[in-house]
Amino acid sequence: MSAQDGRMQRLIRWYKQPNVWIPSCFFGMFLVIFAANATMIGVGMSSWRGLVTTDAYDKGVAYQQAIEAEQQEQALGWSVDLSVDHPQPKRADLLVSVTDAQGRPVDADTVRVGLVRPTQAGYDSTHTLTALGGGRFAKRVQLPLKGLWELRIEAEKGADALRVSRRITVTQ
Length: 172
Hints:
The chain is of the alpha+beta class and 172 residues long. It folds into 2 domains: 3-47; 56-170, Immunoglobulin-like, CATH 2.60.40. Helices cover 37% and strands 35% of the residues. The chain is built from 4 helices and 8 strands, in the order ααααββββββββ. The strands form 2 sheets. The chain has a 4-stranded antiparallel beta sheet, with no helix packed on it. It is elongated. Pfam families: FixH (PF05751). It comes from Rhodovibrio sodomensis. InterPro entries: FixH. The chain crosses the membrane at residues 20-43. Keywords: Membrane, Transmembrane, Transmembrane helix.
């Protein structure tokens, strides 16, 4: 018997011992599954930003009222023009112009801008703009983070109101 035949005989004997390789395969398989699950749990926990919706049920119930309010806004014919200037990092100078259907300025009683961070909770704020006259309103605001921001503009004059939303990206 040659040396190679001897090695082959030992390999065949080891292979025929189910108490050696079958448990090893099961152990290896479960080790791979546990490692994959641990990786997925780690990635999921570290990437969650805490974005939640409060009062989701109440918002769903009030949906019809929101549709009616939007129809009333469209009947007004008002339009909003937003100008955003970034003279310094994380600072925005907002200028909002409100006009009616004929293009005349609307001197609204109040104009508010809600700054909402759509990707992260905890940075939202609301600001009341200062009237400059001629349907123009302005405010200088500090933004805590650069990136995407949603500006929710609300202009009110008496019982009439207009709500629009615009998105801006702060790069500095």
